[in-house]
Amino acid sequence: MEMSDRYCQEMRVDVSSVSTSMTTDPMTEEILRDDLRFYFMSPCEKYRSRRQLPWKLAVQIMKIFMITLQLILFGLNNQLVVSYKEENLMAFKSLFLKGYSGVDEDDYSISVYTRQNVYDSLHYVIDQYSQLGNLSVGPVSYAEENEKFLPLIICKKSYKRGSAEPSEEPFDIDAELETVCLSLDPESSKTWRMNNASFYELDFYRLVDIEITFALKGINLQTVRSHELPDCYTFFVKIVFDNSYHSGKVKLTLDFDAVSSVCKNWKISGTAQKNTHYYLIFDGFVIVVCLISAVLCTRSIILAVRLLQRFSSFCLENYNLKVCEDDQREFLNGWYILVIVSDVMAIIGSILKMEIQAKSLTNYDVCSIFLGTSTLMVWVGVIRYLGYFEKYNASQNTQNHI
């Protein structure tokens, strides 16, 4: 309302300063004045003025609750994934690291100090790996590719030449590193150590590190308890014997990269499939609401541009005046752009969530980024509506008193 009055006052002042007499249609000017006044009204004022229901406000309120609930449900599901990975990491450390007590030492898992302990730990990893099917209580097995087990790879990295006895001088060190690797098939683990005995002859004064890598398959069955379809994982495990400091302390670390994939040939009875359908229907409804919100905001932007064009043409034709850029920006509501961006991100996130629920995709991180950002933008958009209530808007209250 203030914006339209300001425009009208400017037009009256400008009319007196124009030397050329121009006649304007009072009806056209009054209609334009009413449209300007109505455009800058709040949803409550528009309802009191023309009994026009604030559809955009109603859709935004509905969208806030729906998107927030959707993010909570996805977060609970993602929490199961995070806990599954953390518990598997702890299980692998207990399975493959000899003497692991369940507590890491700083940035590594455990440490050994004697040659015999290094050999024992190295043999322990290989023995545990070869007996994995009889040891693990979880649904973990060897990873396969083309119906063949992926082998365990063990590599030792050493200085190319070295002779470093503290009681003897000079030292003879070649800093260039050489790497020797061997592969172990789980099915031939019994004869592997005998056939490669020379590989275990470690020159500790030259040894930099030993790296053991292998791949395992697992399935997250705890999602079934939460009425969700399970995820299948491939764990790329890496165990490192770090002797790079040559301080008499060899650090053992275990870490893995967990890559989720779609389980093949799964068949689950009970309520999991039914509840998945309910989640898919809810996500589809969220997409519909976001589409309605984006359409309403886009429509408001188009109407604002048309109103600006009408106002600019009126001023130019009747008063030979051009609307300045600051006044033109008053017609462009940045909140609408924010809402449209949040709607687009919510739609993309909902589609990704539906694909994850249907186990067609397993990329939780990208989905969480879209859903989290869209939820943040939706709640930030609430700030706009607080300006329509005088008790929450100090600037508007002060202006009204003045």
TrEMBL record:
Coiled coil: none annotated. The keyword Transcription does not apply. Keywords: Membrane, Transmembrane, Transmembrane helix. InterPro entries: MCLN_ECD, Mucolipin. Residues 81-264 form the Mucolipin extracytosolic domain. The chain crosses the membrane at residues 278-302, 335-352, 364-386. This is Mucolipin-2. It comes from Labeo rohita. The lineage of its organism: Eukaryota, Metazoa, Chordata, Craniata, Vertebrata.
